[in-house]
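**C-alpha cells**
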Amino acid sequence: MRIRATVAAVTGALALSALSVPAAQAGDSDRPERADVAEIAQAARDAQQTGSPETTGKSRVASAEDDVPYAIDVTFSKVKVNNGKPIVAGTKNQVTVPLSFTLTHGADVDIHAEDFFADVAIYRGASYAEAENVLEGDYWPTCTSVSDTVANCKGTIDVYPYEQLFNEDAATWKAVGYAIDFNGQNPEEPLDLSRVGYTDQDSGLATTKLQRYSKLTVNASPEPVAKGKTITITGKLTRANWDTSTYKGYTKQPVKLQFRKKGTDTYTTLKTVYTDSTGSLKTTRTASVDGYWRWNFAGTSTTPAVKATGDYVDVK
C-alpha cells in the first residue's frame, strides 16, 4: 500500500517534515536528518502558537516544556517554483523541478551556520496549518549571500507520484517558507527552546499547479487510401491516475481533429470530437490529398495540453 508522504490536516504542523533543508551546503552528511529537524521545528512552531511546546508522542523537547522559541528575523520573497510553470507528474517516475527564493535576514542571523536551517516547500490545503499534502526537495538548498542581510537561494521540489500523490492533489498549491536557528543547541535534542529561533511564512509567497501527465494517440486508416474514399481517424486520451498508479481514459473532453497537408508546416483544425467513456476518439473524413492527421487536446486545470504525433496517410 502506498503511504502519502505528508500529514493529515488535523496535524498540519507536521508538514514541517517537508522543510528540513538548511540554507548552507547541499548534501552535508554531518547535518541532522530531516525528521529530526522537522520534529523540533514542529515543537517550536507549537510553542510559539500556544506559549509552550508540544510534548506529546516522542517529542525530544519535553525537557524544554516551559521554553518558547523567539521569532527569528527571517523573511522569504521572490519565490519561484518550476520557473512559473505547472508541475506535471506521471504515475511512477520522479519529477524534479527548480526552486528559487530570496532570504532576507537580520544582520545578527548567520544563515550559513551549521545549525541554521531554511527552505521553501509547497503545500495543498486551506492554510499551512491545515495542509493536506506537502512536497519538498530531496537536498538542502544552496544560498549565496548578496549582502549582509540578503541571500539568493536555489533548490528543488522533488515529487514521487507513486508514494506521494492522489488524484485530489491535481490542484493549485501554495508555497511556504520556514527557518529555524538552533544557536548552538543540539538540533536533535535542544534543551532550551528559548534559545532557538523559528519562523514560517505562507502568505502570498507563490502558487503552482500540479497536473496529471496526459497522453494522446492517433491512428488514421487505411494507409494508403484511394482518393475519395473514407479515412477513419481514431485515438485515445489518457492521463495519470495517481490513485491507482495507472493511466486511465480522460472522458467527455473536447479534442480537435487537425490535418497538415504534405509539404506544409501548419495544421488546420477540421472539427472537435469528444472523448467517450473510455477516453477514446473516432471520426471519419474523405481522403483528398496526402498529409498528416492528429488529435490536439487543449488541456484543463488538472491536466496539461497534449498533441498526438501526426499519422501520415498516402492518398492514391
